Amino acid sequence: MVKEGQECVHGAGVRRQAERAALALLALVATSCSLPGSNVEQLTAPPEVMRSSVRFQKEYILAPGDQIEVAVWRVPEVSRTVMIRPDGYISLPLLQEAKAEGLTPKELAASVAKALSTRLLNPEVTVIPIQVRQPTVYVLGDVRTPGGFPARNAVTAAQAIALAGGTLRSGSESMSTLIRLSPDGYLEAIPIGGDFTLSQPGPYMSLAATVLKADDILFVPESGRSQVMRVLADVLVPFQIYLNYKLIQDITTN
């Protein structure tokens, strides 16, 4: 016969055993979620993606060393294939020189057409880039040597950070953000740093699995996701983030 006091002690022991069993089950599930090759699917929330409020189009900016073809329709003797000089100018027949550095091909074509209009009747000019600077990706934020790097050497986000000398002690790989111009013309800030709660190498695996495109910007913040989310408004858009390109607001979009 069990007395009332013994029954209470026995009930408490059963509850403790049940709690230990539940904790063991949770630990087993958590372990199976993080083990490679596990059949248990990890459920994660989709990353927060920030988009610019305005739409842009991207145009190439000419620079010294670029080789371009300046074609004047029906006036082949004026058309030339030239290289932009170190001073940023080009030389053309009928023109002493024309400034090309810092202009888009369309802007240069309009400038040359205007200059030629004093010698030719309604000249139609087309500027075609032939040899231009190699595709580049950019690493900003808390890295040792921020700047642009050849896209062929920075295939993944991890490689880009390595080319930038790695992060500073205050840098946070887990909060890394990819900034990219979307196909529909909006700048997007996409968190790619992974989740430290899954496993210690989680963010590094995420960075190694993120393939970059030309003109991508990888931003490694000091700390705090909110700092990353302010990059577009505070830093990137006002300073025309792409070094090889400039972003021109599409005024046809509401």
Structure notes:
With 254 residues, this protein is of the alpha+beta class. The chain has two domains: 50-58 and 134-249, Outer membrane lipoprotein wza fold like; 64-131, wza like domain (wza like fold). The chain is built from six helices and 13 strands. It has helices at 4-34, 105-116, 157-163, 202-209, 225-229, 231-236; strands at 50-51, 56-60, 67-72, 80-83, 89-92, 95-99, 125-131, 136-141, 147-150, 177-181, 187-191, 217-220, 245-249. A six-stranded mixed sheet has the order 1-11-10-12-8-9, covered by helices on one side. A three-stranded antiparallel sheet has the order 4-3-7, covered by helices on one side. Strands 2-13 form a two-stranded antiparallel sheet. The model is unreliable at 1-46 and 237-243 (pLDDT under 50).
Compute the number of helices: 6
Q: How do the helices and strands follow one another from N- to C-terminus?
A: HEEEEEEHEEEHEEHEHHE
Structural class: alpha+beta
Portion in helices: 25-40%
Topology:
Layout: H1 4-34, E1 50-51, E2 56-60, E3 67-72, E4 80-83, E5 89-92, E6 95-99, H2 105-116, E7 125-131, E8 136-141, E9 147-150, H3 157-163, E10 177-181, E11 187-191, H4 202-209, E12 217-220, H5 225-229, H6 231-236, E13 245-249
Parallel strand pairs: 8-12
Antiparallel strand pairs: 1-11, 2-13, 3-4, 3-7, 5-6, 8-9, 10-11, 10-12
Summarize the structure in short.
The protein is an alpha+beta fold and 254 residues long. The chain is built from 6 helices and 13 strands.
List keywords for this structure.
about 250 residues, alpha+beta, Outer membrane lipoprotein wza fold like, wza like fold, 6-stranded mixed β-sheet, 3-stranded antiparallel β-sheet, 6 helices, elongated
